[in-house]
Each structure stands twice: as structure tokens, then as C-alpha cells.
Amino acid sequence: MTDLSVLSAGDALVPHAVSRLRTERLARSSKPFLARGGPRGERCPGCRLVPSHCLCAVRPPVPTQAGVCLLMADIEPLKPTNTGWLIADVVPDTFAFGWARTVVDPDLLALLRDPRWQPYVVFPGEFAEPGRVVTQVETRAEKVAPGPGVPPLQGRRPLFILLDATWTEARKMFRKSPYLDHLPVLSLQPDQLSRYRLRRSQREDHFCTSEVAAICLELAGESHAAQTLEAYLDVFTHHYLQAKHQLPVDKNGEAHSRLRALRAQVPGAAAAGVARQGG
């Protein structure tokens, strides 16, 4: 699939991969999905927030060598708090696929075979065979010895496969996706607790999807993209919670100020966006 998700001169947003997956999922629903908030549940199609707290004007695409592939549990694309959407807003090459135990999207299999990418399944190493586990990410400028049983990496672009689901669902997805079994498992060792306040995980060492992506980008040497995604999550969280409590957005607050400074470092991104290939 080809996604030309950009912020045009007229500020019109072309749907990215997660947005398109949400549309496909809604089309398969037997009854309408009703999100809370706003008059009659009205939400902006570009950011899923109520119109009074729309986030589209600060969408911060950043050019990256790394890509992200989201395998999303059935209901995830419909959740207003899903942060895979934020990843697709920031990382140009973001791909999104619905996960099912018995059906695999042929486009996903083609992506995993694409010689331009080096896929990593991002998951705790304790649940994988030791020979598959890696803790570093190869960039085009270096080679990383991945460990016994893992094929050598050849300087391809990193592609981070994120299982976007609840912890229980993600473990099931990891166990029941045989097409991932030959890929290295990137086990993260984060040194900070999650700041995500919209949905709580049962384990303190669990991160929301966009936080995981930010850590992966940092490992791949994409520090600016990682910092932008972190700041964008904070801005999204602020908008969401202010809307929930019917309070105005503070556009001069710390989160907005930090995101503005980061966006200013990407030439033309604030005005024109970045071309995308995500599927």
C-alpha cells in the first residue's frame, strides 16, 4: 500500500495508515461505534478529539530512516486514546494492519519480506527464545551481531513491529503469529516509568504504544523523531484530558512549547508535511 499522508498547503489531512484501518474497521461493524464527548459524540476525523480541542494544527511529521509496523488488535483502531495514531502522525513510514489468528494480510507478509527493511518484533525478551533476542538496533552505518540463531543484518532500514493491544492480547498475538517467529525480538530496557495517563496498564514496566515507538527510534539513532513523538504524546494527553474535563487548552504550556521548538527544527514540516509510504 502507498500512503501519501501529508499536511497540504490548505491544511487538509490525507488519512494515514491507522486512519484508513479505522475506516475499514468501522465499515465492518454491525452497529455504529459511538465515542464519548462533544455534541452527539462529534470528533475531528483527523485527530479523534472533540472539535474544540482539535490537534491537527500541530501534527509534527519528521523524516526518519526507521519505520513502524503496527499490528493492531481488533478494537484498537477505534479507541480515541489509541496512540498508534500518534506514531502515524509523526513517522512517515508507518504501516498498520489488523491482527487475526487465522487470517494474515498479504501486504503484511510482503512488507516483512521486503529487502529494504530489517524487521524487529518489539516484545519483552523473557517471552522469546534467547537466540532471537537483541537489545541493539542496526543502522545503515553499522553492523550489529544479533546473537546465535538470528541471521546477520545487512544495513537495511529498521522496521519496528509493535503489537498494539492490551497486554493479554499482545501475548496472544506474539504466541500465535508464526510469520513473526523467524524475526529478531527487540527487548527494551527502559529506565523510566510510563507517563501515559489516559489508559493504565496493570504492570508498571509497560508503556503505551507511542512510548515504545519513541524508545525504538532513540535506539535507531532517530533522537529528534523520538523527542518529537514524546512531546506530541504529552500534547495529545493534555488536549484529551482538558476536553474530558471541559477545560480550555493551554497552548503556552510546557508541552506545547516543547513541541513547537522541535517542529521548528524540521524545515517545512510545520507548513507542508512529509511524504509517506506507510501501508
Can you put this structure into words, describing what you see?
The chain has 279 residues and is α/β, with parallel strands linked by helices. It has eight helices and six strands; from the N terminus they run H-E-H-E-H-E-E-E-H-E-H-H-H-H. It has a six-stranded parallel sheet, sandwiched between helices. Strand 1 (67-72), helix 2 (84-90) and strand 2 (94-98) form a beta-alpha-beta unit. The longest helix has 22 residues, at 223-244. Residues 1-11, 143-152 and 270-275 have low confidence and may be disordered.
Protein traits:
279 residues, alpha/beta
Brief summary:
With 279 residues, the chain is of the alpha/beta class. It has helices at 17-27, 84-90, 106-113, 167-175, 209-219, 223-244, 254-263, 269-272; strands at 67-72, 94-98, 117-122, 133-134, 157-164, 185-186. Helix content is 29%, strand content 10%.
Secondary structure topology:
Layout: H1 17-27, E1 67-72, H2 84-90, E2 94-98, H3 106-113, E3 117-122, E4 133-134, E5 157-164, H4 167-175, E6 185-186, H5 209-219, H6 223-244, H7 254-263, H8 269-272
Helix pairs in contact: 5-6, 6-7
C-alpha end-to-end distance: 4 Å
Q: How do the helices and strands follow one another from N- to C-terminus?
A: HEHEHEEEHEHHHH
The strand order across the widest sheet is 2-1-5-3-6-4
Share of helix, binned:
25-40%
Task: Let me know the largest β-sheet.
Answer: 6 strands, parallel
* Total count of helical runs of at least 4 residues: 8
Taking all residues together, what is the mean pLDDT?
83
Using the CA coordinates, give the radius of gyration. 18 Å
> From the helix content, strand content and strand pairing, which structural class follows?
alpha/beta
Proportion of β residues? 5-15%
Overall shape: it is globular
Which residues sit in consecutive blocks of at least 5 with pLDDT less than 50?
1-11, 143-152, 270-275
How many beta-strand runs? 6
